[in-house]
Design goal:
A 3-stranded mixed β-sheet has the order 1-8-9, with helices on one face. A two-stranded antiparallel sheet has the order 2-7. Strands 3-4 form a two-stranded antiparallel sheet. The radius of gyration is 36 Å and the shape is flat. It folds into 3 domains: 39 residues, no CATH class; 82 residues, GMP Synthetase, Chain A, domain 3; 48 residues, no CATH class. It is built from 4 helices and 9 strands, in the order αααββββββββαβ. By secondary structure, the chain is an alpha+beta fold. It comes from Halothermothrix orenii (strain H 168 / OCM 544 / DSM 9562).
């Protein structure tokens, strides 16, 4: 009951405790606002989930692998002795971009002579680089790309009907090797499962 007696003495009718009473009331109101402030907020807090986010670059990276796989499937499936084909292309990393920069180089040479006749020369070189950004009609901005290097292919898996025949397997391997400019040891050709 000691706390109740302390509160009663603070909120009692004594004039000396008026300042202390006001401070305690402000503290309680502040605490309530902190605890229940989110209820009155009109801006809902964003909900975060643990799903992985695929960025546009990662999406383009997957699109490159998928489109190359589809093209290879179409080409290989029309080869003599080949039936159904499934192809999976693997790359080491996504495409690499080189961007255009606006470069400003300033050279400043200062020659000084001191009272004793000694001379010295001070040379300052300043280089400032800024990325060149293009704006589209909608107001979006994109950096200007000077070169784009396609992803490096680390391997190709091909499953094809007719690959049981060593000559057909050889023709598929050599064709893909020449087409993608990769060595044959990075290409695996397997026979399609019979049902």
């Amino acid at each position: 009951m000691g706390v109740l007696n302390d509160l009663n003495s603070i909120f009692g009718k004594e004039k000396g405790n008026k300042l202390l009473r006001n401070i305690v009331i402000l503290g309680m109101v502040g605490t309530l606002l902190l605890l229940f402030g989110d209820i009155f907020s009109s801006n809902p807090q964003p909900v975060t989930d643990n799903k992985p986010v695929i960025t546009e670059e990662k999406n383009n990276y997957l699109t490159y692998e998928e489109s190359l796989s589809k093209e290879l499937e179409e080409i290989i499936s029309v080869m003599s002795g080949v039936g159904k084909v499934k192809v999976q292309v693997y790359t080491l990393k996504g495409p690499e971009y080189s961007y255009v920069y606006d470069q400003n180089i300033t050279n400043k040479i200062t020659e000084e002579t001191d009272q004793n006749g000694g001379q010295r020369q001070i040379q300052e070189d300043t280089t400032e680089k800024s990325l060149v950004v293009l704006q589209d009609a909608a107001g979006g901005e994109e950096p200007l790309i000077s070169t784009k290097q396609s992803p490096v292919i680390s391997g190709v898996l091909i499953v094809a009907q007719g690959a049981e025949d060593s000559e057909i397997k050889y023709n598929i391997t050599k064709s893909v090797s020449r087409l993608l400019d990769i060595p044959v040891h990075k290409i695996s050709v397997l026979p399609y499962k019979r049902r």
